[in-house]
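Entry type: protein chain
Record version: 2
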Amino acid sequence: MANRILPLRGAANPSSAREGTNPGSFANPAAVGGPLSFSSPDTPGMPAPSDKTAWDFLPAGWARDGERVSAPAGFAPVTQLESARLGVVTAEMRRVAEREPHLTPEQVRVEVASGRLIIPANKVHLGYRLDPMAIGRATKTKVNANMGASPVSSSTQEEVEKLHWSVRWGADTVMDLSTGGNLDECREAIVRNSTAPIGTVPIYSMIIGRKIEDLTESEIMKGLLHQAKQGVDYFTIHAGVLREHLPFVQKRLIGIVSRGGSLLAKWMLVHGKENPMYTHFDEICDIMREYDVSFSLGDGLRPGGLADASDQAQLSELETLGELTEKAWKRGCQVMVEGPSLATTTSRAASVLPRPRTTARPCSAT
């Protein structure tokens, strides 16, 4: 194979027995700025990806005329997405271009503005040691490291040591999934010492010392604000698991395998109310915009095995995540979506695609 030129876009199969190599493994030509930039073709017969991007979901009062965008008088951009939309190349975008030598700062800006690339960089963390990086279709593949103290093991000092070893051996982002010890102290120390973006699943810390059914909606909002103020760069929020989806789970072999998804499912069943992460999504956006915390919209109904793959529960949640992505874009927030593929989705696309596309994100057991 060393001397063989691989076919473009699966025109032929290089496997000698014409098996074992999927035509979808060959990428389309790069087209930065277009809806299919840095994409790979799907299995033959799949519907085409949606051509909708974050440009189609501007905040109220914004207007676009070709490549020119105008915001309401007196508006000052807060997030990387808002700056990118207004044509501003930030210092963080320039740093990303240095770390992604195949991209120029302007190309980074264009990809951020389209919603296909995010720069998880909390404004507080930027004041410490954060070295900005990017996640998206146009970037190099990223590796995430999961760590965290448990109720019976580890300490703040040990978690900071884990952080340093993770970054030393190539982790591009790190998630603090602590469920024990002094969570506040540990999270603060990790953020202050990390050059890589830090992510959390906020609901994990919200149930320390209490049952999930005792968690109030006001406590959820306070917890999110607190972690944003500490400098966390991205939150995994399982806002796409709705009450109407829960009956679909009963048909599954394995049920709900996401910890965040199962916690919120129990909250809904006990209270007989909708997922608070969904009903308060606009308020959550406002908190995350203030500090430029990126969304990692969690796939709380992902399948635990092939028997449950692409079932009604999974696809219904993915459609809701498309809706939430549009809402977050309209409020100026950066978004990536946990899930099955590597492109941007909207609810319009998710409603018709057997396998909706989602912005690339680092893998994590959330």
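Comment: The first strand starts at residue 63 and ends at 65.
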